[in-house]
Design a protein that fits this description.
OB fold (Dihydrolipoamide Acetyltransferase, E2P); mainly beta; binds zinc ion
């Protein structure tokens, strides 16, 4: 079935992130001035305001920082999956990334649950990242 979910509005700032996902790699921005990592992509470093940054791969391992369970989905394309859990995952490298949790019953999700990234090729030109319980 064709993907009917939301599509990102990809621009020059975040194109490297989406290209990495298509290679099944999760990357975040790294400030070349202060070396801190950040997500979501921004033009300037939120810590030192430097415009210089690179993209650096992360392990894809982290823990659930916070989560919510969706019972009424935003569009019919998502309703078949409800209930499902949306979360912020704190990567072991530090940044927190918004995501959907998969391979877990929503009622089994807890704060600090160890999770790992998985890649979902939803369309020939679009790969999304999700997280599932680690191990
Ligand atoms: Zn910086």
């Amino acid at each position: 079935m064709a993907y009917e979910g939301f599509r990102p509005d990809i621009g020059p700032l975040d194109a490297p992130f989406w290209e990495a996902l298509r290679r099944h790699e999760l990357v975040v921005q790294e400030c070349t001035a202060c070396t801190r990592l950040r997500f979501v992509p921004t033009e300037l470093c939120p810590y030192c305001a430097s415009p210089a940054s690179t993209w650096t791969p992360v392990t894809g391992r982290g823990r659930v920082y916070t989560y919510t369970v969706v019972h009424r989905a935003p569009t019919p394309a998502y309703q078949a999956d409800a209930p499902y859990a949306l979360a912020y995952v704190e990567l072991e490298e530090g940044p927190r990334v918004p995501t959907r949790l998969v391979d877990v019953e929503p009622g089994a999700v807890v704060v600090d649950l160890p999770v790992e990234v998985v890649f979902d090729d939803v369309a020939p030109d679009l790969t999304l990242y999700r997280f599932r319980p680690a191990g």
